[in-house]
Specification:
- By secondary structure, this protein is mainly alpha-helical.
- It has 17 helices and no strands.
- Helix 9 packs antiparallel against helix 16, helix 15 packs antiparallel against helix 16 and helix 16 runs antiparallel to helix 17.
- The chain is globular.
- 42% of the residues are buried.
Amino acid sequence: MIKINTILSIFFISGILFFGRAFTPIFEALPGELASRIFTPISLIFYILSFYLIVREGEQYKHIIHSALYPLLICVVALLSSLLSFNITSSLPKSIALTGGLVFAIAFVITQKKDDALDTFLLAIFWALLISFFVSLLMPSIGIDDGSNDPDHLGLWQGIFGFKNNLGRTCAFFLLILYFKTVHGNNYKWYVWLLPIILLIMSKSTTPSIALISSIGAFQFFRLSKRMSISAKIMFIPILSFLILLAVKSVEFIIVEIFNKDLSGSGRSEMWQVILKNIDYSLFGYGFGGVFWGEGNPAEYIIGRFYYHLGHAHNGFIDALIDMGLIGFISYFIVLAFPLIHAIRKFSSGNKIYSISILTLVFLILYSLSGSSFLKQNNLLFIIYSISVFYPNWRSYCERNNGNR
């Protein structure tokens, strides 16, 4: 008989791969709109079963809510923006699905032992990356972008994830969790590190690469400064200034020389100006889920036909402002900054498990500056955010009350 832990592992590995877009080639092979008609019911199955697993764990709802306070906050704001949207029928299911992602993340953490959850994540992503490597080499029609949607993406690796940025940020998340586990005493073979690094380079996904390097660098500096006296910190200021200058120059080198891009973010800065000058600044925005974008929607008439088809602003803070208005923009900042401050305080007091929050939240803040919002329904981005905030809070509660669980 199969053990219940094995069944749970299969369930969560399947969910991580599904929401991480690892089954993209299968869905793209389906005819017409069949893929979207299948994707939604599958997502719903994961959410319903995850909710059942949470209920099955017992009456700890107060502690679950407390541990997941910030992800819950942004889900509520997204739901309110949908209810007040000009296109509620399209927006509301997306905000409900966002909440479903949080439910999956909570179930993922509370149903597994202390070390099992992140090991399950690493196992799922490692196999997806390994398959992506061989698909890109042996089946380039699937694993390498043919440039049909964007000529600038011609030849870039996308593996089984369907898009180079999906592959790039998946590699970045894998390396972040791997680094977190290494800091806590786990050792991994060299090829476990090399595989995502190769794929990240071959995808030429700039934003996750820079965010990854910067988040690990910031965490290392924080660990170092924790051990320094005040006088040593003052003496370190000139060195820090030089390191910051060196980092800026390194970023410029990576963008221009390695990834062959310009410093305007491939025209993103011009698009941001157009958006910020022309959108309506309402309390709850146009509605969560990107209903602003697309043909026949406000984007076509407000920011013009050159940008309306993009689907997002390539800036998480601007996306939050568009989708969820001024309330959403403020909430977006709160749900990133407040748990980060909380994690830094906990880590400073000796609770090292909060390093996962520091690493991930710094990454998401930097990623939001030039990438998409992490608030995406049916997507690994929001699930990773939810895990990084919920996991250390829940583990700390369990260690105080129930030992390993």
